[in-house]
């Protein structure tokens, strides 16, 4: 066929000029690729899109040279890849940088791989049952049919979470660019990644690019982060710890858990399944750079970061929060859901570092959950009444800000309590160590927090730059020094005043006994409150607060 007639309807659908009456088959296929549509779906074999910087020879698919287009020429809003290699990676990045929505073929196709993994792992488990005479082949086949829908749900759950992770990564692409640059450098230095091969930008490119990494680049980075973490965790005993048995069990469909619970612990790939599940969840929920930043700032191992993640997730009930966000699909703007995910990451970041910095390695996951969860749960519902003065107003303003972006008010309030509930870890810790009543500790802690304008100081610390590792470490050290000082002050007030007095009067009595030191510190805080965020000034101020604690303790 030399030409194909083009109807008015086809011209309109493909955005073809009005005077075109016919096109050759090759011209028509090219027009389809360039159509102004919502979704361009590639489901075939061949590479149809490259970058303007690439030649057809670079692509290596001669059969489609005549119709191939550049990523910057595409007029679709979204590209989905049902087939492999439909676009070159540089073509994807070119399309993404001009505003198109696209991941990569291995992301769009990951459900198929995930499904195959489940299939193989289930058959390995059931193969042992058949070999031992516990089940016949027809019984196995019937069980496989029974589990089909649930396997699909498990697979879709994994891929949904991964897509959410990539969406959240784009939301922080600009703010976390310095971190992403350091990650790429470290992956290269360790030999895990070749930027040139993976079409990832050089540091020089990132210097001039606005908006940080694109979604296709994040897709590649996400994959490498998971690969490296899995390798590290397989060399650690984390998969053999008793609490990890639940991770293994949750991987399999419910009928299999009921029929073969004893066989799961004997699965030949048990450790690999546990590690893969842990890494997927932690990276998807915590973010691409979550483990990297936590290691960089605390010096802890990847395994302990993941142990701490599990503790924080359980202690603060994060699974319930995430389920509430997911229930809002197609009801609120995606940007509102992303905001809640990012807020929960703030808590994860801070609480995980608190745990790995204050506990011995390896972290005792069930022990820490038992030690912290009851107290945190008890205080969380009282948080708004515990906060005082301007800090209570800040809490309410934060919740109102989330609600103004489309987050339902109850969820906005719940999320705010979680983010501002980080200090409860110190409250529970002081109560556990001192023997004082939990509610008394909390009341004194939040009176002192308001008196010394802790929330203002934390806001100042958040404004400090984190362009390099040392600035990041300095920010982290200041934040934890401030919380540690507040906890130490709380313990000192509790130990030096009568438990018969209400919290406000206990603090007042302590202040009267340490008037001169407190006045100097308060004046410094007042002066600092009106100045810009400055690392040196913050350091001096925190030294004054620590001196105040030591002076008071010596009186």
From TrEMBL:
Transmembrane segments: none annotated. Coiled coil: none annotated. One of its GO terms (biological process) is L-glutamate catabolic process. InterPro entries: GDH_C (IPR048381), NAD(P)-bd_dom_sf (IPR036291), NAD-GDH_cat (IPR028971), NAD_Glu_DH_bac (IPR007780). Residues 2-167 form the NAD-glutamate dehydrogenase catalytic domain. It holds the Pfam family GDH_C. Residues 212-546 form the NAD-specific glutamate dehydrogenase C-terminal domain. One of its GO terms (molecular function) is glutamate dehydrogenase (NAD+) activity. PANTHER family: NAD-SPECIFIC GLUTAMATE DEHYDROGENASE. This is Uncharacterized protein. The lineage of its organism: Bacteria, Bacillati, Actinomycetota, Actinomycetes, Micromonosporales.
């Amino acid at each position: 066929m030399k030409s194909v007639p083009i109807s008015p309807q086809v011209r309109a659908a493909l955005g073809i000029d009005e005077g075109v009456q016919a096109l050759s088959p090759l011209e028509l296929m090219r027009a389809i690729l360039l159509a102004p549509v919502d979704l361009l779906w590639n489901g075939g074999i061949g590479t149809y899109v490259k970058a303007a910087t690439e030649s057809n020879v670079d692509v290596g698919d001669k059969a489609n040279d005549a119709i191939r287009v550049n990523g910057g020429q595409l007029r679709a809003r979204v590209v989905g890849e049902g087939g492999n290699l439909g676009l070159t990676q540089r073509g994807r990045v070119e399309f993404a940088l001009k505003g198109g929505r696209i991941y990569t073929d291995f992301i769009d196709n990951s459900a198929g791989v995930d499904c195959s993994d489940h299939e193989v792992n289930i058959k390995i488990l059931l193969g042992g049952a058949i070999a031992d005479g516990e089940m016949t082949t027809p019984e196995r086949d019937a069980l496989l049919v029974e589990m089909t829908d649930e396997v699909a749900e498990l697979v879709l759950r994994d891929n949904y979470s991964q897509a959410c992770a990539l969406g959240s990564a784009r939301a922080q692409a600009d703010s976390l660019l310095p971190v992403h640059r350091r990650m790429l450098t470290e992956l290269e230095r360790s030999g895990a990644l070749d930027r040139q091969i993976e079409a990832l930008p050089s540091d020089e490119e990132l210097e001039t690019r606005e908006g940080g990494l694109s979604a296709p680049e994040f897709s590649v980075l996400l994959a490498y982060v998971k690969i490296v973490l899995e390798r590290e965790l397989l060399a650690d005993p984390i998969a053999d710890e008793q609490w990890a048995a639940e991770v293994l069990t949750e991987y399999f469909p419910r009928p299999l858990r009921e029929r073969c619970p004893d066989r799961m612990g004997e699965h030949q790939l048990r450790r690999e399944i546990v590690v893969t599940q842990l890494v997927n969840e932690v990276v998807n929920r915590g973010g691409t750079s979550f483990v990297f930043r936590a290691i960089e700032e605390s010096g802890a191992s990847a395994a302990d970061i993941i142990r701490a993640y599990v503790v924080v997730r359980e202690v603060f009930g994060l699974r319930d929060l995430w389920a509430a966000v997911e229930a809002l699909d197609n009801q609120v703007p995606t940007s509102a859901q992303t905001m809640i995910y990012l807020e929960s990451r703030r808590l994860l970041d801070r609480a995980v570092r608190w745990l790995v910095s204050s506990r011995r390695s390896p972290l005792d996951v069930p022990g820490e959950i038992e030690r912290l969860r009851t107290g945190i749960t008890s205080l969380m519902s009282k948080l708004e009444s515990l906060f005082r003065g301007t800090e209570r107003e800040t809490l309410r303003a934060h919740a109102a800000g989330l609600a103004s972006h489309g987050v339902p008010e109850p969820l906005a309030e719940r999320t705010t309590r979680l983010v501002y509930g980080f200090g409860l870890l110190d409250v529970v810790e002081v109560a556990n160590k001192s023997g004082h009543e939990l509610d008394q500790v909390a009341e004194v802690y939040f009176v002192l927090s308001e008196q010394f304008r802790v929330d203002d100081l934390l806001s100042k610390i958040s404004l400090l730059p984190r362009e390099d590792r040392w600035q990041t470490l300095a920010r982290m050290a200041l934040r934890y020094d401030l919380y540690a000082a507040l906890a130490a002050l709380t313990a000192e007030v509790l130990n030096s005043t009568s438990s018969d007095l209400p919290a406000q009067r206990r603090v007042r009595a302590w202040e009267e006994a340490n008037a001169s030191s407190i006045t100097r510190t308060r004046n410094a805080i007042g002066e600092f409150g009106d100045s810009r965020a400055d690392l040196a000034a913050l350091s001096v101020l925190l030294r004054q607060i620590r001196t105040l604690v030591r002076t008071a303790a010596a009186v």
